[in-house]
Amino acid sequence: MEKEINVRKATIEDVDAILEIEESSFPTPWSKEAFIGELTQNDFAQYFIIEYNHHIVGYVGMWLILDEAHITNIAILPQARGLKLGEFLMRYVMNIAQLVGATGMTLEVRVSNNIAIALYKKLGFEQHGIRKNYYNDHGKKEDAMIMWVKL
């Protein structure tokens, strides 16, 4: 049986699914209100969801400002990880960013997130600094690696 993958722009109707993915992926998840604000009030934001066999299994958020794209967040449901859906989604938004004139893309990633770092390096991202104590999860702080890629 062939697996079906579809990426589309997120809508306000997708917020509950996005929130479920967010809450299952991060120790300090964004709130429902934050995602609603991103989708309805932030002119720089574009959010996309990925469907696998007609089920929403991941999302990515990107801000497009002038000629730069910034990945705000990306997550795949734990049960859908390992299927290269995160790579598919990143390649998709990198292409979208390039099509609308972005010449570079940046993101922050936890220094301990070796799987994500390996993916970003595979996609051409390089480390360009550290943000000290960027993540604060209930008092536990962790640095973020700043990564960039030319598009």
Explain what you see.
The protein has helices at about 15-25, 30-40, 85-100, 115-120, and strands at about 5-10, 45-50, 55-65, 70-75, 105-110, 125-135, 140-150. It is of the alpha+beta class and about 150 residues long. It has a single domain (about 5-150), classed as Gcn5-related N-acetyltransferase (GNAT) (Aminopeptidase), CATH 3.40.630. Strands 1-2-3-4-5-7-6 form a 7-stranded mixed sheet. Strand 2 and strand 3 (about 55-65) form a beta hairpin.
Please specify the SSE layout and strand pairing.
Elements: E1 5-9, H1 15-25, H2 32-40, E2 45-52, E3 55-65, E4 68-76, H3 85-99, E5 104-110, H4 114-122, E6 126-137, E7 140-150
Parallel strand pairs: 4-5
Antiparallel strand pairs: 1-2, 2-3, 3-4, 5-7, 6-7
| Overall helicity | 25-40%
CATH architecture: 3-Layer(aba) Sandwich
Q: Main sheet, how many strands, which sense, barrel?
A: 7 strands, mixed
What is the global morphology? globular
CATH class: Alpha Beta
Q: Low-confidence parts, pLDDT < 50 over ≥5 residues? A: none
Order of helices and strands: EHHEEEHEHEE
Task: Supply Rg.
Answer: 15 Å
Structural class designation = alpha+beta
Mean pLDDT: 95
CATH topology: Aminopeptidase
Task: Give the beta-strand count.
Answer: 7
End-to-end Cα distance, whole Å, is 35 Å
- Spell out the CATH superfamily: Gcn5-related N-acetyltransferase (GNAT)
Question: What attributes characterize this protein structure?
Answer:
151 residues, alpha+beta, Aminopeptidase, seven-stranded mixed β-sheet, 4 helices, 29% helix, globular
